[in-house]
Amino acid sequence: MQSFGISLDGTKNGETFAPAKDQFQEELVIRPLHSGDIYASFQFRTLWDTDFLQEGQKKVSHYRLFPKSLGQVLSKFSVQELHISFTQGFWRTMQWGQPFIPSPPGAELWVWFHDTVSDVDGNWKELTNVLSGIFCASLNFIDMTNTVQPSASFKPLGLGNATDHRFLRYATLPREIVCTENLTPWKKLLPCGSKAGLAVLMKSEKLFHSSFHSQAVHIRPICQDEQCTSKAWELRQTLNVVFDHYTSGQGKKEWSLFKMFSRTLTEACPLASSSKVYVDITDNPELSPATPLLSQAVVLGDRRTYSVYDLTRAETFGQLRSFNLLLRWKGDNMLRPLLHAERYVAGFGLQTGEIHTVIYNNHPYRAFPVLLMDSVPWYLQLYIHTLTVTSKSRDNKPSYIHYQPAKDRHRPHLLEMLIQLPPHSMTEVTVQFERALLKWTEYTPDPNHGFYVGSSVVSALVPSMVAMSTNFTQDQPLFSSFVPVKEESSYFVRVYTEPLLVNLPTPDFSMPYNVICLTCTVVAVGYGSFYNLLTRTFQVDEPSPPLAKRLANFIRRIRGVPLLA
Q: Which residues, if any, are the signal sequence (predicted)?
């Protein structure tokens, strides 16, 4: 039996080739939130034991589970690591806790290129245009005016400990709107698409009618065992959504898969080696149907207990061949996030202002350092000498500062600082800026709406309340294995602040319209009258005879008598 010229014995047109060394896993995590909302996190992982960079001469052409479009991108542009996310809404850390994989509002893209690339900027420009077409997004608006090269904030999450930040590019589009046209190509990258498995639940009408929605793609090389004797490329697609029980008309803490997604599960993806649904039962919610399978994991410094539903087992679906999970809970307990950050703009008028970034350390007795990164557009001219960092009303001198000034219409500001946060404290970072006056062609179609400034990024190793697991196993849940844990006493957290909306000095764009109308009126009246005088033909009109003479001629015409002269 053959399909598309490939036989089941591993031959293609009579030629043998190595068997596919790839696998696919899918996972859904459901976590009730103390606010009454519910957090659903989809994770899909595709592992492929190949090397796009070293085998570039062989032109890897046989793709089974790994998307060919992304594989060709990695090979053509020598990409070592790629992370892209599209987010609608803002993650409310103080109400929902920490997400499994954070992302800022809008679009975010950061890429590590291979150290053999000679023209990184050229590859970056072409890569953004290609990704713009793949995901139907506005990534083609990424250029050097909104691209930075962080020196310490974004280290590789896969193999390699790159320190040369010349091969790193980072950019955000905080105004990017996420909609169905972005979700559709994202689902097409899955081996089963949206026809089977967990992706069946991804109904656009439900996903976008939520408080928060984020979809991402992460590609990196990883080790397949603890000794790293075999390596593979990992493609991880994640989709996080928070359903609001008020906007959805629930009004009580009771959810089901059908209420959330308007669909139920009928089968696992046939190509998946693992397909599971995890439900957080740490706060003792009621589950129906119940499952005897339980799993414990330390996630973001907190030990959680999960009920596990294995979709590869026939008994999970029952006799109706349909799996609908009902969830009720009452608990309102939630650990306060140990790290939280926010940002806002202060000042008045349209000439100067001040950016305030506030970082909270809620740990009762432990101090720890954080790495703050700010990327500010060139039209906000920072006064770096006004930079102040205060903790508990005292100056807090950063131990590391990296600042790259902006160039008008060429590159943005980049500010990175390593700050020590005292225990149970609030640290405030302020810097003053002056607004630039843009050319009239540089304004957006709605300039009075304002201009967006991307989120600040806070990265830290936060002390853990419980011992983190450093053992590497392939059986770990996907939601707890994205960021490798190297120490039992701490875990890595990345926090994004709100994007800023800043007003710039804006000319009155109605004045050209008024001038055009006035000028056209003057030209029409003045030139029209003058042209009329020049082109009109004048003729002498003889005066008409008096009334008596006209009556006499009328009578003579009737009688047939000659008319009077």
A: none
